[in-house]
Write a structure and sequence with these properties.
With 274 residues, this protein is of the alpha/beta class. It is built from 8 helices and 14 strands.
């Protein structure tokens, strides 16, 4: 599955950048990189609808963009040029194989993302990783929904989980997650290509990690509830702080109780309990 990159120029960049990112997230864009002049945004080719992008317009700032398909063969090269280790406080270091291991970090994760999104640089990955340390993963069953490069599943394994399933709709993500799990001595993690239709209809998981986007979360939240054990937890991310109330209200209507929420640069994570 190919990705499409949109490079947006926004005049003036502030506050236009944050507003545009929020609009693009609703159009199934899944990764963003803020630049000096605007934002680079990425979307899987099957979800790309340039007509909807063209319709985005605001009175307070102007938007122009350049659209290009990302060749799979070039992704590793570009990634290696720009990838720096990611630190979640002193808890986790997410790095590439060509970075030296860092001392005094509790958990070390080595990845090679290929065409898969989820290098750990996005604020939502940082938020979920940090919040995971508030939960007990020892001997637990975990679902990583929208696993990307497998970072959260691998961290769950390092935190003591014994049964882990990662699911993603992107074939590259599944292949990449399997490779990254092997690099991190976590080959027993099971990864499957698909969506929420793969989830069991009985209470199976102690923890569900879902770092996707708001629309998918809204559609699949009831399935997460169904497959979660009583007293189990869900960590939701991939959306903005402005969306927290909407998602929390939906979760409570399904049967979840809201435990906590955190934010970083306008992105949010919600902790829910069944």
């Amino acid at each position: 599955m190919n990705y499409i990159q949109y490079t947006f120029t926004i005049t003036p960049p502030e506050p236009g950048t944050d507003i545009l990112i929020a609009a693009l997230a609703d159009l199934e864009f899944e990764s963003f990189s803020v630049t000096e002049t605007g934002v680079e945004a990425y979307i899987q080719e099957p979800f790309d609808n340039e007509a909807l992008v063209k319709d985005i317009a605001y009175d307070d700032f102007s938007i122009s963009y350049h659209r290009v398909e990302i060749p799979k063969t070039n992704w590793n090269e570009e990634w290696e040029k720009n990838f720096n280790p990611v630190f979640v406080d002193d808890l986790v270091c997410i790095r590439a194989h060509f970075h030296p291991q860092v001392n005094n970090i509790k958990h070390d994760i080595v990845i090679t993302p290929k065409m898969s999104f989820g290098t750990g640089h996005h604020d939502t990955t940082w938020l979920v990783s940090k919040t995971m340390f508030e939960l007990d993963f020892k001997n637990k069953s975990v679902l990583d929904m929208g696993c990307g490069t497998g970072i959260l599943a691998i961290l769950a394994k390092q935190l003591g989980a014994t049964s882990i399933l990662g699911i993603d709709i992107d074939e590259w993500s599944i292949e990449n997650s399997i490779e990254n799990a092997a690099i991190n001595a976590a080959s027993d993690i099971v990864f499957k290509k698909g969506d929420a239709s793969l989830l069991p209809v009985t209470a199976t998981f102690d923890v569900v990690l879902a770092n996707i986007n708001k629309n998918i979360l809204k559609k699949d939240l009831a399935s997460y509830y169904q497959s979660l054990k009583n007293n189990g937890y869900v960590l939701l991310s991939g959306f903005f702080t402005a969306d927290v109330e909407e998602l929390t209200n939906l979760a409570q209507s399904i049967g979840f109780s809201s435990v906590d929420q955190y934010s970083k640069n306008e992105w949010a994570v919600i902790k829910l309990k069944k």
